[in-house]
Amino acid sequence: MKRLAIFLCGVLLLASCEDIDEARMLPTEFSIGDITDLSELTYDEVENLAINSDYQDPSYLREEMRRTGGLIVKGAVNPKEGEAYDYARLWLSDKESELPADGGYWGSGNAYQVETLTGTAGSPLFYVRSWDMVNFQENQASIFYYKMALESWNNEYPGFLDDCLYEDYYSRTVFSSVKSYSKETPYILDCAVEEGGALGMSFTVRSNYTVTQCGMCYSNSNQLPDLKDKVAYYNLDSEADNREVYVHPMALPEESGTYYVRGFAVSEKGISYSPVQKATIY
After folding, report:
1. Which of 64, 98, 189, 225 could form a disulfide linkage to 217, CB 3.0–4.6 angstroms apart?
2. What is the CATH number of the domain that holds 191?
3. What does each of the 282 residues of the chain score in pLDDT, given as a tens digit?
4. Is 199 helix (H, G, I), strand (E, B) or coil?
5. Same domain, 159 and 267
């Protein structure tokens, strides 16, 4: 009778649960892939970036990308059969030691958590704002370290154990190797275009090194205008340190129509461009 009672209790326990699910494991093959500066993407390429509308307004975020600039970081995830993840995270720091530790809680470390564009739809994309890197400039940082994590919620055990034995949320996390990115050229921030009777831009330049030239490039045919196209220079104070300057170049194009416009700034370390924007001259 005792064995029969135990058996019946087991049957009732399983009956109260959902069907047994296949256990899901986190992917074992994943890494941080390409890191691309937004200034290298055409207007249409930014427009076509995949953005998860469940968490943010895609149109607003694209405009913020064009104004603020930054990096697009691509995660490379190759899940095998039975592997999946629920959430992807990326951290940024100017010190590798401050990134979350392998095997540790995902919130550990003194680093910025970077915004996810696509969540779990395929390999994730992340948007690193220029300000996220500029905020490390007090340390004169020029090399940044990135680390990605994949997270799984309530999937450590087969489904009937999850449903019957665990009521609270729990998660598992695996980390990628660290990838570094170097930037010594100036940052172009808060970039806005002006259109109508004239063509103009306004933006702030931040740099660890003296800025020697800045202004805007524009073209009605080249989707990534540079110094080989039309250029409007902004006069800098040659006596100033010029490591943080507000820039407001203006131009009067000969032809009306739509122009592709990029701000630029030059230091001894090279040239930086802002993401491309569009402006119409009447």
Report:
1. 225
2. 2.60.40.650
3. 555 454 445 545 544 444 444 556 889 889 999 999 999 999 999 999 988 877 778 999 999 999 999 999 999 998 888 888 888 889 999 999 989 876 555 555 568 888 888 765 568 999 999 999 998 877 788 999 999 998 887 644 444 444 444 444 456 888 999 999 999 999 999 999 999 989 999 999 999 999 999 999 999 999 999 999 999 999 998 878 999 999 999 999 989 999 999 999 999 999 999 999 999 999
4. strand
5. no
Nearest by Cα to 165 from 6, 9, 16: 16
Phi, psi of 161 (to 5 degrees): -70, -40
Do 198 and 235 belong to one domain? yes
Do 248 and 223 share a structural domain?
Answer: yes
Considering the domain architecture, whether residues 83 and 175 belong to the same structural domain is answered as yes
Cβ-count burial of 45 within 10 angstroms (0-12 exposed, 13-18 middle, 19+ buried)?
Answer: middle
Within 8 A by CB and 6+ apart from 182, the residues are: 142, 143, 144
Roughly how many angstroms between the first and final C-alpha of the chain, as a whole number? 93
Residues 151 and 227 in one domain: no
**Count of structural domains within the chain:** 2
Both 28 and 113 in one domain: the answer is yes
Residues 205 and 250 in one domain: yes
Domain containing 233 equals: 187-281
Provide DSSP, 29-91: SEEEEEEEEGGGS-HHHHHT----TTTS-HHHHHHHHHHH-EEEEEEEE---TTB--SEEEEE
